[in-house]
Structure formats: structure tokens, C-alpha cells
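Reminder: ligand-aware prediction takes two inputs, not one.
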Amino acid sequence: MKNVIILGSTGSIGTQTLEVIDKLDDYKVIGLSAGKNISLLKKQIEKYKPEIVSLQNEKDALLIKNEYKNVEVYFGEDGLIELSQNPKYDILVVATNSTVSLKATLKAIENKKRIALANKETLVMAGDIVMKKAKENNVEILPIDSEHSAILQCLNTKDNKFAKRLWITASGGPFLNSTREEMKNFRAKDALNHPNWAMGKKITIDCATLANKGLEIIEAHHLFDFDYENIKPIIHPQSIVHSFVEFVDGSVIAQMGLPSMHIPIQYALTYPKRTKGIKTDSFCLFNKTLDFYEPDFNKFPLLKYALNCAKEGGIMPAVFNASNEIAVYKFLAGEINFLEIEKIVFKQIEKTKNILNPSLDEIFEADELIRKNLKISACN
Ligand code: MG
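Here is what comes back for the chain with magnesium ion:
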């Protein structure tokens, strides 16, 4: 039996993780954390009977505590750390938004727990620190992201010595064939209409700007220890090939499947094994066309900015991440138009003086400064 704690259980990945666990024999949920969706959390508590839960704020924590006397209840960032310190679990699924779970993830690594990582900020902001700690503690970080799961499956044994280049596929999002002029007038509802994947709002906008691909390249760099020169984004609108690896002998191995997050979630939980689980329908390529294109960096400059920040290293990936996050929430709130997202990010990058080999505190300071500059502290 494997005991699982899910940080962010009411979000898109959190709920899909529970659906996967429902179909696996030997996995039990013992801890959950949620933001503000209390009614869904209550349903999850009643169904999974976790021993420990954590809420975003104290008021909701008290409410849950009064209602469920047998459950240990915590709140805030400390609550997440409390969950990650629990001695009884095997796998921590990190599916929270933003930066709130970074410290809890580091604690779980110190406690030698497997990390199933859906949160992008963890590696984008502090990839060097997180991966160093994972290595020291002999901890596996398993990606819950279709592209990184694909690469992990292509590399198979994690022995990447004969792998030459990683190719990260991108659907291109809903505006792939739109002009810059048309993009100006796009509203959140246009961008939230993703052609292939069902995802949270923030990541769906990141797919529309291609910022998501930039973040994923940074993650791939840390997860698989590849230079940025050897990680390539490629547009593949059908989202059937989830990424591929090119080897020194000219061989290329790709991982394919219908676009569903259930598959990478299950693989992160059962790795290195495969098992029958939630996906029972068969895969068929009859009459399907697979297209591939080079990304247009001028039309989608956020991809370019992300890669520039990645290559500069230091605090720049954190600066990119925080400014992009705030800009996306402003766009979702209807405060700015679609093309202003990139302008906000560019301005913050320009303003920042980089710090190389930053400490965790310096990374958080950079993150907070950007949020302060853009006058928003937390997003939901
Ligand atoms: Mg992805």
C-alpha cells in the first residue's frame, strides 16, 4: 500500500489525481490540502477520509475542524509543511498553484519522500536548489506534465548519456493561426478555449502565449540535466506526440497518447511500473494527421523571454515566472489586453539586476518584489 498526500486536491490536477487513485488498487489518500473550494474539499474528506488536511486560511480551517473531529487540520504555508512532515506517507503530489508549496516540497525531499510534481514554479524558481537536495537525499522527482512524463518514458532508465536533444511539443494554443493584430482584441474567454487539454485557467492562458512552453523548457533542463541549447520547443497542434528524444545514433523515440493528464499522473504514481488504471479506451491513429512546425518567436515573444531568462539563470526565471503570473491574472480579470501580458513581463525583466547562484531567500525576495511592483500579493 502506498500512502499519498495531495497538495492542491481541489484543483484540476488534484481532482484528476483522485480519479486516478480511485482506479488503482494499492494507493490510499491520507492527506489533502485545498485553497478556497471548501464544498469540494468536504466531499473529498467524506469520500477519502484523510487523517490530515490543510486549508489556505484559518477561518476555513476552523470550520473544517469543527465539522470533522477525527481529522487533523492546519492552514497556510505552515499547514502544507505540516503535511509534508507527516511520517506516514510515501508520495507527495504537488498540484498547488504558484509558489506556496515550494518550502513544503523541500521538506518532503529532506524526509526522503517521492515527489510527483505538477507545480511548475518549484523547478522554474529554484530548480538548482531543489534538484541538488533531491540528489543528496536520493529522492525521485516524477513530473506530472505530459511533456516531461513523455521524456522520462523515452529516456526510460533515466540514463540520458546517449540522448542528444529533447524536443518538447506544444499544441500552440488557440491563437496559433491568429495574427498579432487579432490577438490584441482577444479576451479571456477566447484564450480559455483550449483545443485539446482540460486545464486550470492560468496554464491555459500560458498555453495561448506559449509562456507555458518556456516554463516547461526550464523544468526539463533541471529534471533531465540538459543544456538549454539541446532542448527544443516544437509546435504540434494535435497533442498526440507528447515529446520526443533524439539520440546520438540518430534514433528518435517519441511518446504518444490521447491528450489526457490522467496518464502522466498515473505514471508518476506507479513509476517505474505500469499498471492498468483509469485509461481503458484503446489508442488508434487511423485517419489522424500529425503536424509539426517551428515556433514563431516573434508572434509569441513570451517564449523568447522565458528562454532568455532561463539562459541567464540566477533569479531571472523567478522574475519571468512572477511577472507572467501576475500579468495573466490581470488579463483574466479583464484589466489588460492579451498583448499587454508580454509588455508587463518585458518591463520587469528589464528592470531586474540578476543575482547569480541565489539562495532560496533571495529567490523569494525577487518573487515578492515583482509581485509588489505589480501590486498583487496572491492569486487564485
Ligand atoms: Mg505540459
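The chain has a mean pLDDT of 94. Residues 98 and 121 are 6 Å apart (CA to CA). We will return to this case in the review session.
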